[in-house]
Specification:
5 helices; single chain; rod-shaped; mainly alpha; about 160 residues
């Protein structure tokens, strides 16, 4: 980055006034070619350091977001599986041999809660641009599963 770009960036950020910007430009234009190169190198190395630190920070944030997304995927699956198992236990009063095909019932419950959660979290994510879809999906499946289980328990 040249000295001109640096002072223009300072002006855009509100660090210096328009008068100071014009004075700096005039000063820069009066310098010899060697002096301009020296000043440009000085500001170029500072900018490269800040750009590298900004890139490293962005990489770290991206790694954290990716790891949190994986965590929410895992937790969403876990909540859905727990809901299906608890729902089967409530319906059979703890005796899973009552079901003719327990896996079919288990996966139908899992499928139902996932589809309902996907529809509701899709609607929510249309209006909420700040949060990731998987985070919204996790909280939706958690809420729906919890409310459904408490509803089934209160009926028994």
């Amino acid at each position: 980055m040249s000295h001109k770009k640096k002072i223009e960036a300072d002006y855009n950020n509100g660090v210096i006034s328009i008068k100071k910007l014009q004075d700096q430009r005039e000063f820069y234009n009066k310098l010899s070619k060697e002096e301009k190169i020296e000043i440009d190198k000085k500001y170029g190395t500072e900018t490269e350091k800040t750009n590298n630190s900004e890139l490293n920070l962005k990489d770290e944030v991206e790694k954290i977001e990716n790891s949190s997304s994986a965590l929410f995927y895992f937790l969403s699956i876990l909540v859905g599986l727990l809901y299906s198992f608890i729902k089967m236990s409530i319906d059979s009063n703890g005796d899973l041999s009552v079901f003719y095909r327990p896996f079919t019932y288990f996966f139908s419950q899992l499928f139902a809660v996932c589809i309902i959660s996907l529809i509701l979290s899709g609607i929510i994510s249309i209006f909420n641009k700040k949060s990731k879809f998987i985070k919204i999906f996790f909280w939706t499946i958690f809420t729906i599963s919890s409310l459904a289980i408490f509803g089934f328990i209160s009926q028994v």
